[in-house]
Design goal:
about 170 residues, mainly alpha, 7 helices, elongated
Length: about 170
Amino acid sequence: MRKVLVVAVVGLLASAAWAGPKKAAVRQKFIKICKNEAKKLCAGVEPGDGRIAQCLAEHKSELGKMCMVALRRAKRIATFRAKCGADVKALCPDVKPGAGRIHTCLKTNEASVSAQCKTRLARSTSKKVVADAAAVADEAVIEEAAAIEPVPESLPIEEEAPVSEPTP
């Protein structure tokens, strides 16, 4: 079963590379960063339909920091696609992803954006959060255009790192 997982990860990497640099850059980050954890923790899990991401989320206490960050980002992208994908198609069909253009388009057309997407956009307040939301929006559109399967939106993991109380 371990061979199946290794072959699946290698196959995903190869298919991402074949599809072009943008698709490769978006999905390879998650696959590359979490490859060792996936091999160790999810060896018996058949890839597809978000099962590897689900397995990793179920083992979140055992994940390295970088894999956890990548998994959270993948969830933010999936959530953006679910909440704002239709709005992007309707309001920004000719906007090329990159440099935050998708996020800017949605903010510019906020009066016409769906309620669920407005709620998603409203979360962007600080410069750091806006920059991340803009990058997530661009990546989500790139993944959607490349027909990359998103991780399950219901993934049992927080989209952001929990805020811890400062120690005195």
